[in-house]
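Convert to structure. Protein one:
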Amino acid sequence: MDTAIESRTDPIVAVVGWSGSGKTTLLEYLIAQLAARGLRVNVIKHSHHDVLLEPPRKDSARLRMAGAAEVMLASPFRLSVVRELRGAAEPALSDLVARLAPADLTLVEGYKWEAVDKLEVYRPALGKPALFIEDANVVAVASDAPRPDTAPARLSWLDLNRPDQVLEWLAGVVAARS
């Protein structure tokens, strides 16, 4: 694991799974519940697509397109930073984590290839292989199917249809790091 990630005081958990498995829906629930408990939760969402974060005719987009390396848009309600990579390599997860403010927990959606603790959202009906079989960084699986006999004993097996169960597991991760 990268030292920038290891040096964080907040636990980092990547929520991984195949497209259509319900990662974002589960994350919405988990984040809302954790925030309601007074926890500060950061999120990094990976996308394979070109992401449009601002209307093209807005001032911030015009300045970015004029050649600015980064544009920070700040208001009394929120701020955002948009960095145009202009052919440079996508930043490593550790670089992104380093830019975040301190939190009680950082959740990452995606980044299957990173060596961080992972919660896999697994639905066998999708017809895709389980990630936990090949990835020792998967520490828990939230599934709509019973635990298979082949699942390693090290895995926490959680009922995806009981998101409160996943929430309590995640709250335990935060408590263990506190």
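Protein two, convert as well:
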Amino acid sequence: MLLAGMLGVGLAAAGDWTGLLWGFLGALCAGLIPAGYIEWERKRGTWGDRHVVDRTKRAPIFFVILGSIGVGSVVMVVGNAPTGILVAMLALWAMTIVLLTVNTVWKISVDSAVASAVVALLAVVHSPWWLLAGTLTVAVCWSRVALRYHSVAQTLAGAALGAATTVAYAFG
């Protein structure tokens, strides 16, 4: 979902195919590299699964995400990326800081936050019709609860944070 969302934001920001490249860089730094890190640590036996259910073990993931988004943002600045994709990256970076902070005292759903942020960002940069894709966010939240990885409150908090990320984007 993050890959499609960042490609869509990049396309809107650039107005042409080059935005897809910037969007891919955003998706790589915000999602693919962190997912690769999680998988690497999982295979090493650090975590039982890719969901890292124990919130006390999540801090390294957040620091990898922050570093990866930070490096990607620097590349975007140096490469003169369109402002829209850079602001989206910085909004995701800020969201990650909040997720990390909350996670120190309470387990919040990162998946719900990302799903909500992607849908809301696409609605802002393309069309409010993208809000219909909010059903995907609901599905993500439901799955997190159904799998017993999160409570309803944890998924709702994550989804609210993701939507708030778009506010940062809209005014950034």
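The longest helix spans residues 18-44. The chain has seven helices and no strands.
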